[in-house]
Amino acid sequence: MKLYLVRHGMTDWNLHRKWQGNVDIELNEIGLKQAHNLAGRFKREHYIKVYSSPLKRAYKTALPIAENINIQPIIIDDLKEAQVSLWNGYNINDVKNKFSKEFETWSKDPWAFVEGVESLAEIQQRGVRALKKIINENEDDVVVVSHALLLRTVICWVLNLPLTSIGILY
């Protein structure tokens, strides 16, 4: 079994490095083209299902990939991006400046409690739970479309890396 992990296409907030969290932002024109191009790439692969976060940017990235095999993406709520309402709409540099204490705590302690921000460990738990469910239900190759932070935490789990190593990605 191959499990293809895909991050959604670009949004305007991605372009400006703004935190989106689980705000339901649409793909921009570039993101729609990325989704179309990615679907073209997946035409060369054999897969039986496409799973997606329910957020529009992930679902609309998953949709053309699923259309290749005449199915609809399967929505899994646990594939949603992190809940980061404290930082939504802020540029990453603004978050590091305006919320420096909260960001540092959150970045260094996987179980940190920061009001309005899901901990890295909680994000990873959700993501791993979703992937284990997908793996248990399938023997053939599948595509999973989700979000950067959730996928990073899952990759840390797969590679047995500490969640604090996720900071190198910012």
Could you characterize what this model shows?
- The chain is an alpha/beta fold and 170 residues long.
- The chain has one domain (3-169): Rossmann fold (3-Layer(aba) Sandwich).
- Helices cover 44% and strands 9% of the residues.
- The protein contains seven helices and four strands; from the N terminus they run βααβαβαααβα.
- A four-stranded parallel beta sheet has the order 1-4-2-3.
- Helix 4 packs across helix 5 (100-108) and helix 6 (120-137) crosses helix 7.
- The longest helix has 18 residues, at 120-137.
- The chain is globular, with a radius of gyration of 16 Å.
Which key features would you list for this structure?
single chain; 170 residues; alpha/beta; Rossmann fold; 4-stranded parallel β-sheet; 7 helices; globular
Q: What's a concise summary of this model?
A:
By secondary structure, this protein is of the alpha/beta class. It has seven helices and four strands; from the N terminus they run E-H-H-E-H-E-H-H-H-E-H.
